[in-house]
């Protein structure tokens, strides 16, 4: 740690609402986090790419495309379609832009990000680099690891909008910074926990989307709850093996950030990856399924990334292999799942 006193000052400033915070991304997660932050009486910058949506939110106090039932406290918002303006005004950035578009959006910036504190709430990989977001920020944009954090579930933006009790895990190498962000996101309906497993939680957030696709495919093929329970049981063990090989440290895979996030994504009707998997299981092509969905299914890109990463480790990952065969090799879901069920226990 280069300057502990400076880090302490930063985290204290966050707790005292002195540092300026901005959310980048106008989708469901961005909207949910904006709702939380402004309810905590914090003024927040918000980058929304479409200028028409910016005007709509200012006028009507809700997002026209995502979580439209959620009323937003616009007096506490500084909304703009100029990403450079929003970033220049902020000390802390929370990324919610879908991973498929993150690189192209960040390329619009005319200044470095390495003086910012950045928390990723993006649940996927950056296709251009095939890296999880934290690694992409560090290796491609030179953001120091001690200035990067992760915000993960288990939670769906839709339930946050309805103010149903939800849980968030904030992971960061710097404990005080994690605690500061956790305090910022805590509300009467949001409980927060912290973790120092920044890589493990983000890899888990990526992998659970792949398993949710598998869950959706299985459902569409007519497999019932009994099989789904076996599939998820094997998925958490597969996740444990994968993350242990990629990033070794002490962790409890049964904690909410891993198992909890996997279960809510694999079972919930709100899960876009499960919905994507159901379309594939019903016979949709990948391209057709992507066109039908209003939101990005991060698990599609995550599948290729996980397959590529595993070439260096040869971890036993039959579920990931099965989903890859269906999505990228054009294999028939029925045949692949008949083979998969023999590999599960």
Question: How is the secondary structure organized here?
Answer:
Layout: H1 4-15, E1 21-24, H2 28-39, E2 44-47, H3 51-60, E3 77-80, H4 83-88, E4 92-95, H5 99-106, E5 117-120, E6 125-126, E7 131-132, H6 133-141, E8 148-152, H7 157-161, E9 166-172, H8 175-185, E10 190-195, H9 198-220, H10 225-246, H11 256-267, H12 272-281, H13 286-292, H14 298-310, H15 318-328, H16 333-340
Helix pairs in contact: 1-8, 9-10, 9-11, 9-12, 9-14, 9-15, 10-11, 14-15, 15-16
Keywords:
single chain, 345 residues, alpha/beta, Rossmann fold, N-(1-d-carboxylethyl)-l-norvaline Dehydrogenase, domain 2, 2 domains, eight-stranded mixed sheet, two-stranded antiparallel ribbon
Please name the CATH architecture of the largest domain.
3-Layer(aba) Sandwich
Q: What is the CATH C level class of the largest domain, in words?
A: Alpha Beta
Tally of DSSP helical segments: 16
Q: What is the β-strand count?
A: 10
Q: What is the N-to-C order of secondary-structure elements (H for helix, E for strand)?
A: HEHEHEHEHEEEHEHEHEHHHHHHHH
Q: What share of the residues does DSSP label as strand, in percent?
A: 5-15%
Strand order of the largest sheet: 3-2-1-4-5-8-9-10
Q: pLDDT below 50 for ≥5 consecutive residues: which ranges?
A: 1-5
Structural class: alpha/beta
Q: What value does the Rg take, in angstroms?
A: 20 Å
Main pleated sheet: 8 strands, mixed
What count of structural domains? 2
Give the overall silhouette: globular
- What fold name stands as the CATH topology of the largest domain? Rossmann fold
CATH superfamily of the largest domain: NAD(P)-binding Rossmann-like Domain
Helix content: 40-55%
- Distance from N terminus to C terminus (CA atoms, Å) equals 44 Å
């Amino acid at each position: 740690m280069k300057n502990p006193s400076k880090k302490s000052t930063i985290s204290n400033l966050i707790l005292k609402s002195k540092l300026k915070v901005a959310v980048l991304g106008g989708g469901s997660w961005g909207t949910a986090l904006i709702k939380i932050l402004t309810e905590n009486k914090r003024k927040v910058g918000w980058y929304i790419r479409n200028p028409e949506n910016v005007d709509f939110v200012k006028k009507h106090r809700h997002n026209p495309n995502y979580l439209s039932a959620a009323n937003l406290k616009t007096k506490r918002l500084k909304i703009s379609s100029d990403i450079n303006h929003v970033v220049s005004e902020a000390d802390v950035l929370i990324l919610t832009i879908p991973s498929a578009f993150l690189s192209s959006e960040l390329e619009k910036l005319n200044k470095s990000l390495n003086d910012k504190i950045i928390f990723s709430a993006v649940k996927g990989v950056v296709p251009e680099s095939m890296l999880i977001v934290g690694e992409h920020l560090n290796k491609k944009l030179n953001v120091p690891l001690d200035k990067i954090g992760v915000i993960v579930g288990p939670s769906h933006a839709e339930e946050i909008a309805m103010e149903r009790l939800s849980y968030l895990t904030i992971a960061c190498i710097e404990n005080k910074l994690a605690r500061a962000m956790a305090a910022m996101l805590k509300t009467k309906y949001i409980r927060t926990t912290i973790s120092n497993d920044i890589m493990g939680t983000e890899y888990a957030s990526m992998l659970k989307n792949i398993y949710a696709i598998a869950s959706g495919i299985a459902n569409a093929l007519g497999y019932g709850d009994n099989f789904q329970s076996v599939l998820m049981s094997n998925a958490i063990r597969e996740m444990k093996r994968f993350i242990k090989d990629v990033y070794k440290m002490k962790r409890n895979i049964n904690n909410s950030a891993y198992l909890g996030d996997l279960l809510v994504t694999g079972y919930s009707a709100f899960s876009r990856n499960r919905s994507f998997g159901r379309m594939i299981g019903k016979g949709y092509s990948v391209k057709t399924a992507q066109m039908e969905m209003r939101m990005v299914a991060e698990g599609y890109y995550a599948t290729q990334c996980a397959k590529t990463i595993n070439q260096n480790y040869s971890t036993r990952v039959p579920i990931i292999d099965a989903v890859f065969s269906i999505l990228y090799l054009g294999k028939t879901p029925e045949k692949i799942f008949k083979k998969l069920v023999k590999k599960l226990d």
